[in-house]
Amino acid sequence: MPLRSDWSTEYCPIRRSLDVLGDPWVLLIIRDVLHGRGRFDTLRDNLGISEAVLSRRLAAMVEAGLLSRVDYPDGNRTRQGYAATAAAAELLPILQQLAIWGERHTTMPDGGGHMAMIHETCGHETTQGQICSSCGETLVAQEMTWVKPWKNARDRLQPAGTLA
């Protein structure tokens, strides 16, 4: 899913990673899917993204192995949504570290508030992206809750392969 150039055959793993993840929509879509918001309409509305752009990104992310299509019932019919693959779930430390970096190095808009990342296994907030700063365990999506005061929300993350 090249953003500007095709780096898929480069020796540098950072370039190859950016070939897949370099579009900012990709990480935002993964964030929402890990929060159980993998239905097309929900993604579109939550992200404020056009249907055409979202359709292209979702197709490319399925092709890249970041998302899988999953069926879900919608009244009398079955629709398809998107679930994180194991590859996407491995991006959790990067997403959490981006949140930590953003809180430290960007200005919080008025009305915002600190986003706490709670490791449900020990019940404490972590200040690290990959390993819980309280208990030392590796952080995985299904054991994490993100507390977002600007939305008055506590979002429990979903394990790979599930659509809430």
Automatic annotation (TrEMBL):
PROSITE patterns, per the entry: HTH_HXLR
Transmembrane segments: none
Leader peptide range in chain numbering: none
This protein's UniProt keywords: DNA-binding, Transcription, Transcription regulation
Domain HTH hxlR-type, chain residue ranges per copy: 12-110
SUPFAM superfamilies noted in UniProt: Winged helix' DNA-binding domain
Pfam families per record: HxlR
InterPro entries assigned: ArsR-like_HTH, HTH_HxlR, WH-like_DNA-bd_sf, WH_DNA-bd_sf
PANTHER family: TRANSCRIPTIONAL REGULATOR, MARR FAMILY, TRANSCRIPTIONAL REGULATORY PROTEIN
Name of the protein described by the UniProt record: Winged helix-turn-helix transcriptional regulator
Organism: Microbacterium alkaliflavum
Species lineage: Bacteria, Bacillati, Actinomycetota, Actinomycetes, Micrococcales
